[in-house]
Design goal:
By secondary structure, the protein is an all-alpha fold. It has helices at 3-9, 26-35, 40-54, 56-109. The protein is built from four helices and no strands.
Length: 110
């Protein structure tokens, strides 16, 4: 594979992921890189980190997507807590109302 001479010539920090589409698919290139002597850290640099370093605007988009997903999960949890709090308030208010009605009824009897 042509990557081995390149890997011997330059650091992984100097390699960007790319494809020869339509001649080869991205999956072919990923398999080819995995077959090279790159460790997991080098593969992360080649697949994503080097591009983010060269084009910082991609990092903002990448982080917005990650934060957006985390915020969506937090919003769902928060909404669930709001519903539970609302239901709890309703049951407490109901119990208080019954208690006051009983005490008013007993006060009126006396």
């Amino acid at each position: 594979m042509a990557m081995l001479p390149l890997a011997n010539l330059v650091w992984a920090k100097q390699i960007l992921f790319g494809t020869d589409l339509p001649f080869r698919t991205a999956a072919d290139h990923v398999k080819g890189l995995a077959a090279c002597a790159f460790n997991a850290q080098d593969l992360a640099l080649i697949h994503r980190d080097n591009a983010l370093h060269l084009m910082p605007q991609l990092m903002a988009t990448h982080m917005r997507c990650r934060i957006g997903a985390a915020n969506a999960a937090m919003c769902q949890s928060l909404q669930k807590l709001r519903v539970e709090a609302r239901d709890l308030r309703a049951s407490v208010y109901g119990a208080l109302a019954e208690s006051f009605e009983r005490s008013d009824f007993q006060a009126a009897k006396a």
